[in-house]
Amino acid sequence: MLAVANELKPVYLMTGGDRPKIDRALARLRARFQTDALERLSAATAGGDDAVAACNALGLFGGGDRLVEVSEVEKWKTPDAKAIAAYLESPVQGTVLALVGSEIKRDSPLAKACSRRGEVLVYDVSKKDLPKWVAEQFRRLDAQADPSACRALIELAGEDLGALEVEIEKLAVWADGQEIGEDDVAVLVAAQAEVPSFTLTDAWGRRDLAAALAACESQLERASDVRRELTRLVALLMGHVRRVRDCQRFEAEGKSPKEAAAQLKRHPFYVEKLFAQARNYGADELRGAVVELARLDLALKGGSRLSGELELTRTLVSITQPAAWATAS
Predict the structure, then answer these.
(1) Is 306 helix (H, G, I), strand (E, B) or coil?
(2) Is 173 exposed, middle or buried (0-12, 13-18, 19+ CB in 10 A)?
(3) What are the residues facing 95 on neighbouring strands?
(4) Measuring CA to CA, which residue among 235, 274, 312 is closest to residue 320?
(5) pTM over 0.85
(6) CA dihedral sign, ordered 255, 256, 259, 260
């Protein structure tokens, strides 16, 4: 976090893959200056000497603090870094230089120069920490999302933090204080990454066996740990089938999707989708699907000598294809 206004340093170097966090840090920094006290440059067209000249020129006017912001500094070469280092030996009083670039190493000449007289701020998110990062962004917006929803969002939108931030903000507004679940993400987020696992539950819901099998195949081909992915897909199906059963029961009791949504603590739009899927299956079929998925879970945990992929395929055929077709076959 940046220091308070009277403790600002002459230079800040901001780098890393977390562009949304960099943008927020820049916004906090800009807020400490008057609008007309800001000059923005791009390293694509301005070198280190140009940035130094901007700092010195602004200092001639006086009348308050100044901010010079330079983006894309990863494009700079050694002479540019040397120009900044020389300037920082005697920086202009009241002028702050903000340098922004991606993948600037801490041992680079530019980073070393900035760390001596200012601060190097690295905002990075590792791939394994992406779900945690997504959860933090939801909390920042006073929204609640369960862990499965955070993973689902990454799976659908991809790993670009800017794209994720857009989807997070959209979901937070839509949720309006209610918890965001995995299926909410499936309904509202357009797939930007490769085929997501939610195509599986949608395909099952409309009894499209070919699409369900294709979705499983795609997920397993991409998985780094096939056994773990098989377990996840079974859990995904089990949870979805149970919610569809609940909605079938609610409709039989005369409850509307809105009333069911309140009881399930889900959004009516998503629950309407569950109601529609429930109408594609009989009560006995849904009960049987739960039993089959429990059997599959046991098989994956050592209860079968067949491969997990084959067991999953057999179960999908059993719980997805229409009963009349199964009898005929």
Answers:
(1) coil
(2) exposed
(3) 66
(4) 312
(5) no
(6) positive
Tokens 């929204």: give the residue. 143
207-218 tens-digit pLDDT: 999 999 988 888
Tokens of 210: 């070919």
Among residues 327, 306, 307, which one has the least CA distance to residue 318?
327
Q: Give ranges for CATH 3.40.50.300 in the chain.
A: 9-122
Tell how far CA 154 is from the center of its chain: 4
53/178 Cα distance (integer angstroms): 52
The domain made up of 130-324 is a member of CATH 1.20.272.10: yes
Domain 9-122: top CATH class: alpha beta
With H, G, I as helix, E, B as strand and everything else as coil, classify residue 159. coil
Q: Where are the beta strands (DSSP E) in 87-218?
A: 95-101, 119-122
User: Between the CA of residue 16 and those of 65, 74, 253, 289, what are the distances in Å?
Assistant: 27, 11, 54, 47
Which residue type does 320 have?
T
Q: How confident is the model at residue 182 (pLDDT cuts 50, 70, 90)?
A: confident
What end-to-end distance do the CA atoms of the chain give, in Å? Answer: 66
Q: What residue spans in the chain does CATH classification 1.20.272.10 cover? A: 130-324
Q: Are 178 and 271 in contact (CB under 8 A)?
A: no
Q: What is the DSSP letter of 301?
A: I
d(CA 214, CA 210): 6
User: Coil, strand, or helix at residue 100?
Assistant: strand
Answer yes or no: are the C-beta atoms of 83 and 54 closer than 8 Å: no
Tokens standing for 282? 């009989």
Helix (H) or strand (E) holding 260: helix 257-264
